[in-house]
Amino acid sequence: MKFQDLFAYQKAFSLAMEIFETTKKFPKEEMYSLTDQIRRSSRSVPITIAEAYRKREYPKHFHSKLTDSDAENSETQGWLEFSFKCEYISELEYNSLLLKSNEIGKLINFMILNPEKFGVKK
C-alpha cells in the first residue's frame, strides 16, 4: 500500500488544496503572514502522515510523526479561526473547513491508537 492510499492522507491532502484555493482571495498584505502560515500548516498534515507511514517499522517514530501531524492540524484550525475573525472567510466556509479538519484529527487519532492496522509491529 502507498501512503497516498491512506484515507487520512487523502482527506488531509484534499483539505490542504481547498485551503490553498480559499486563501487565493485573502488580502495581499496577508501573503507573508496568515496566508503563508495556513498553507504551510495545512500542507504539513498530509506530508507528516506520509512520513509516519514510511516510519512504520519504528513504532515510536510512527507515533511521533502522527502527533506532529495532529499538531499541524490543530495549528491549521487556529489559522482558520483567524481567517474567520478577520472576515476573510464566511461562517459557512469556516464551519465547513473546521469540520473537515476535525474529521482528519479523528483519523490521525485512529492511526495513533491502532498502529498495527497500518503495519506497525509492537
Give structural notes.
This protein has 122 residues and is mostly helical. It has four helices and no strands. α1 (7-23) runs antiparallel to α2 (31-54), α1 (7-23) runs antiparallel to α4 (91-113) and α2 runs antiparallel to α3.
Which features would summarize this protein structure in a list?
122 residues, mainly alpha, 4 helices, 75% helix, 0% strand, elongated
In short:
By secondary structure, this protein is mainly alpha-helical.
How big is the Rg? Answer: 15 Å
Q: Assembly state here?
A: single chain
Low-confidence stretches: none
Number of helices: 4
Structural class: mainly alpha
Helix and strand succession?
HHHH
Helical amount = over 70%
Give the amount of beta strand, in percent.
under 5%
Largest sheet: none
Mean pLDDT: 97
Query: What is the number of E strands?
Result: 0
The first-to-last residue Cα distance is 19 Å
| Coarse morphology | elongated
Can you lay out the helices and strands and say which pair or pack?
Elements: H1 7-23, H2 31-54, H3 59-85, H4 91-113
Helix pairs in contact: 1-2, 1-4, 2-3, 3-4
